[in-house]
Amino acid sequence: MSTLDQADVDVMKATKTCVAATRFQYDYLNDDITDDGKIDYSLTNKVPQALRQAIAEGKKILVLINPPYAAATNRGNTANVGNAEYKSGVAKTKLAATAMIDYGKASNELFTQFLARIAQEIPKATIATFSTLKYVTAPNFEKFRQNWKAEYLGGFVVHNKAFDGLTGKFPIGFLIWKTDQKAVNKIFTTEIVTEVIDKDAKAIGEKSFFNIPKNQFLSEWITRPKPNNVEAIPLKNAVSPATVTKDLRGKKWADGAIGGIDCAGNDLQHAEQHTVIFSSGYGSAGGFLITDKILWQVAIIFAVRRLIIPTWLNDCDQYLQPTEPLSDKFKNDCLIWMLFNRQNRSASANDLEWDNRKWSIVGLF
DNA sequence: GGCGCATACGTGAGAAACTC
DNA sequence: GAGTTTCTCACGTATGCGCC
Predict the structure, then answer these.
(1) A73 CB less than 7 Å from any atom of strand C
(2) Which end of chain A, C or N, has fewer beta carbons within 10 A?
(3) Residue A44 domain-assigned (yes or no)
(4) Does at least one atom of strand C sit less than 7 Å from the CB of A128?
């Protein structure tokens, strides 16, 4: 039994918790990792000899973990929106920096860093882990899923509010995997079925989570127009210019553009808050410009992203591209619905001030 | 350098539901 | 019936980091 903070080990010993276990402090993402991403126990000599021997002998090992979850962009939980601190450096652990070349953007997330180390250190381990579901569903984790060889044995998801001190509403999974990192062909499963437990710990049914290639995702349905050299005013609301000072987007127009859209993310979590039409570029990440050629597709994307009610359980479900021809009636319905939706923030205005200049925008919707 | 994904998942007001 | 808690709705930021 290991934990990052020595204080936790001290408390366990003082309170006689898990007396039979060997309890030790260990930094799983930084300790005993060589500069080329290999495991070398002699670097710290913290891992108990018996465990090293069991690993070396290839004994059956069950890894039970509740790793920290943190992606590179989480705000600190106690900070206010807008003044929050961001968790920089998440991808700078020794493990992420040296041993996760094959895992793509999963190196941005702490809990997948743990899984990556286990895959190298104990390649045939059975792993039972708490975590969010994005490593099963999200596009950023496609490369992780291609390289992490695991068979799903079972598990449940529970409302995050069942854990103390968390905000938001999303599922946390406890999933059990039989890994075999040395297998030649075995790849990540395409569907997992979980039991669903609500925040009062009541079983309320089942839910499937799907691993689908991201080229089938709605976010890749249209070719996003390339910006041209015409300057545009970046917006954050109908007539409010963006105020960010770093990584400002939406400063260029595109050939044939009639507006912009904030369309960040491909899941329900983002769709609710990041589906907005503007009369210029969107000043943050996740936007693109709307041209007359793609308007019909934008209307469909807009409608489906806003029509499905977000819940705690469908939080990380992904939107998919249509697989059958769409009727003109459906296309027109989506367009009308978009035009009258409150998230259509297109507008006409003169004398907007940004970058020490005056700007005009024209609402074409 | 630009783009795209992602956030142990933002806030406040008012309504509705619950408790005593 | 009054006080308290939970739910619903309508608004919201901007940045770290991998990849092209």
Answers:
(1) yes
(2) N
(3) no
(4) no
Residues A180 and A144 in one domain: yes
Task: Give A78's contacts (C-beta < 8 A, 6+ positions apart).
Answer: none
CB atoms within 10 A of CB A53: 10
CA-angle at A71, arms to A66 and A77, nearest 5° = 80
Q: Does residue A15 fall inside a structural domain?
A: no
Kindly give the confidence (pLDDT) of every residue in chain A, 365 residues in length, as a single tens digit, with 9 standing for 90 and above: 999 889 989 999 999 998 999 999 999 999 999 999 999 999 999 999 999 999 999 999 999 999 888 777 665 432 333 334 566 677 778 999 899 988 999 998 899 999 999 999 999 999 999 999 999 999 999 999 999 999 999 999 988 888 877 777 888 999 999 999 999 877 778 999 999 988 777 788 899 999 999 899 999 999 899 999 899 999 988 888 988 877 889 999 999 999 999 999 899 888 888 899 999 999 988 899 999 999 999 999 999 988 888 888 888 899 999 999 999 999 999 999 898 888 898 989 998 988 888 999 998 88
User: Considering the domain boundaries, does residue A18 fall inside one?
Assistant: no
Cα A18–chain centre separation? 34
From the C1' of B1, which residue's alpha carbon is nearest? A247
- Rounded CA separation A214/A89 (Å): 27
Those nucleotides of strand C lying less than 7 Å from any protein Cβ are 10-19
Residues A317 and A241 in one domain: yes
What range does the domain containing A69 cover?
61-211
Strand C lies under 7 A from the Cβ of residue A102: no
- Look-up of token digits 């126990």: A41
Co-location of A170 and A83 in the same domain: yes
- Give how many domains chain A has, as a whole number: 2
